[in-house]
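A common beginner's mistake is to predict each chain separately and then try to dock the pieces by hand. The better habit, illustrated here, is to supply every component at once so that their relative placement is modeled jointly.
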Amino acid sequence: MTSRNFDSLPTVEPVARLIEELNKLPGIGPKTAQRLTYHVIRLPAEEARALAQAVLDVKERVVFCSRCYNITDKDPCAVCTDLRRDQTRICVVEEPLDVLALERVQVYRGMYHVLHGVISPMHGVGPDDLRIRELLVRLQGSGVQEVVLALNPSLEGEATSMYLQKLIAPLGIRLTRLARGLPAGSELEYADEVTLTRAFEGRQEL
Amino acid sequence: MTPPSTKPRLFKVEAVVLKQYPLGEADRLLVLYTPELGKLRAVAKGARRPSSKLGGHVEPLVHTRLLLARGGSLDVVSQAEAVHAFPGLREDLGRLAQALYCAELVDAFTPDEQASPPLFGLLVEALATMEEGAEAVFLHCFELRLLALAGYQPQLRHCAECEGPIEPGQHWLSYRAGGVLCPRCAQGVSPPPAPVSLNALKSLRYLQEQPYGRAQRLRLGPEVGAEVRGLLRGYIRYLLEKDLKSTEFLDHLRREGMAPWE
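With all components supplied together, the output reads:
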């Protein structure tokens, strides 16, 4: 790959190389890459080394848990081996970040299963591209009593939920999905038709 | 004061969202089909946040009214209100797969910013039909009408090369010529044209020539159905030089016995 011509420092090769590498990261343009590079130049050597080591560790030590496919540094992951958690419930999410979001609110104490995406026919992502087969294998004779679908309420999330429903319903396992309705801090007048309908259907006694 | 511009800074459009991509931290890039302006791209800022006012109004396959602000490279959605969200499509996997296929077809056959109000009408009507549940043959009606509007209507009554009449007997469909060929013209053509059974040819003619409502009620047997599907898919693949992504998912549902419309 030819190095880009960063006009401020065209000759100092290691600097140009770091700028170029940082510039490849999402959300980081050439100016931010330059600023970060100058910041690294001023860092004490041990901090720079810690940063480099952290980047390497993420690549070398982080793997997918062989049960739930969340990211972990030891397999099986801490959630899957935690005996205080409810082993009979599996919550299905799209991405590892969704596990973080759910763990933050501490309402769920069961297992997880990370699909690593959603079915998206218009972008060419099909069921075989996700960890769906692995989920079904996990459910076979496992004593799991409930599968909670916690996918995004987007078109793709709905498509994936419906697909999973067709596969899981015949297994006789209780299948639930998260409620949908009005988000906190929003306004009724801006709610769309689907959300408002679902919110109304899911109204609760006071 | 800003100098007067020929284009208004804010303009209203009616649109169907054909597809979307995540953009940046919380935005979505929308591909819209509008009656007056054809296919457009626009950014819905913050639409991926739960508290977004736009969110559900700019989901794919939603018929929506938008207020767009002209931006530098991309227009920005300033307000959105769904006209009809076709909730029935979101509650049935097969209907959803069919609708996504139709949306992808429209996207594939339309250049940016070329208006075609009939095509918009065709799409909205198709979404409404599929929301109620459509048979397999409906997709072929849609394909043939879209091909006609896009200027690729297959020639099924006369030989597409010599304009001669098509006699009963063996028939061939040439994707390159855009229609059926008589036995004489079919010889030595490269690539070799696809053989077409008489039943499939008659079915294609019926679907193309009968009024939309009547054509949709045609029932095809499994063999003819598969042949018609294969021929239209082959023709569309030839024209686009690729397979549409959503056909993969339709095939997947068919393989797993999740395609009740077949």
